[in-house]
Amino acid sequence: MVAPVAGKLLILYLTSTPRSIGPLLVQEVDGTEHLVYYISRKVQGAEERYTATERHCLALVFTAQKLWHYFLSFPIQIITKCDPVRYLLSRPALTGRVARWLLTLAEFDISCATPKVIKCQALADLLAQFPSGQCEPLEECLPGDGFEALAANIDEQHWTLSFDGAAGSGSGGAGIVLQTEKGDRVHLAYKLNFPCSNNEAEYEALILGLIAAKERGIKHLKIAGDSKLVILQTEGIYALKESTLAPYQTTVQKLMKIFKSVSIVHKPRSENRFPDALATLGAKTEFEEKRACIEIVKMFEPSAVEDFSEPTEDWPRSIKIQLSTGVGHLPTAELSCFIVLRRELYHRGPQG
Question: What residues does the RNase H type-1 domain cover (predicted)?
Fold first, then answer.
């Protein structure tokens, strides 16, 4: 084994069998992969009933918890042919055990790559057949009350989906707000880069909102929109007269059957301003990339009176104290953007 070179990527090979799991951590220097660390253990207890997919993800989470000092100091690239691992890392929200695993991995810089040659994967497969340790159960506790609240039984929470669509010249926009009973929100804006009518844009917003709710594992949903035509056509009260809307109505009805409970109501436009603003933003904004991230910051004082002198207070420490004690001057909305993991302060970006 060799010490890793600072600033260079670490490569992780994973192996899982019905009786053991094991990672192999290497670093490529001058075209040669040098072994940095290896660890393995037996699979026991409830883990023996895991599916092959869960067992492979278990190997990744076990590695991150045991070698977290490497994961925090280096970018990690996983060499894997296992699509479920990519799925675990790419999903914005999951449920149950997999949700806790995803939150455990959120603080690390992890990417996936498809193996081009066998290299060290054969060695990892061989060493996994001779586990070096007995069963070491995963640490189920996660740091931070916010993470625990998000992972706690998300499929039984009741959500409200507010949607709105806007049509422009040659394009359109869709705005979506998903909100829990406790007030937690998810804001989504889409640019419809194709010609569409106002009614088609409204249907697009509803369909995209249902897909977003489905991907987040939501089971109980209340839908609210300001388009009386879309609401009443979905309820079956209005007849469908425009043939172009038939595929949209069919898609909405199929998606609504996925949820355990779903209802749809009409709300006045005055109560649907946030989704309307998101839809307008999507329709009016032009950008070359497939995805654009926009962060909106609420200002409580005019910028003209801002004090630009060097701060004398240790502001990270004051934020940590306010997070732990609740005593401080930072507004709750701004404080929610920070979280403490392993005694370090992190700021949450627009994507969580």
Answer: 155-284
- Three-state DSSP at 245 gives helix
Condensed to tens digits (0 to 9), the pLDDT of residues 80-101 reads 655 556 656 665 545 566 667 7
- Report the distance separating Cα 256 and Cα 262, nearest Å: 7
DSSP string computed for 123-175: HHHHHHTS-SS---------SSHHHHHHHS-GGGSEEEEEEEEEE-SS-EEEE
Identity of residue 281: L
The whole-angstrom distance between residue 266's C-alpha and the CA centroid of its chain comes to 30
Structure letter (DSSP) for residue 231? H
CA atoms of 159 and 119, how far apart (whole Å): 47
Distance of CA 196 to the CA centre of its chain: 30
- Judged by phi (left if over 0) then psi (alpha if -120 to 50, else beta), residue 30 lies in left
Tell me the C-alpha distance between 55 and 74, whole Å.
Answer: 25
Q: pLDDT, tens digit, for every residue of 219-228?
A: 999 999 999 9
| Nearest of 268, 241, 240, 269 to residue 252 by alpha carbon | 240
Contact 114, 20 (CB under 8 A): no
Q: Which residues pair with 167 in a beta bridge?
A: 172
Q: Are 43 and 142 in contact (CB under 8 A)?
A: no
Q: Report which of 194, 201, 204, 196 is spatially closest to residue 166, judged by C-alpha positions.
A: 201
Mean pLDDT in residue range 182-205: 91
CB 202 within 8 A of CB 190: no
10 Å Cβ neighbour count for 112?
A: 18
CB atoms within 10 A of CB 347: 8
Strand-pairing partners, residue 179, are 160, 185
Rounded Cα gap, residues 267 and 228, in angstroms: 8
* Tally of CB atoms within 10 A around 201: 27
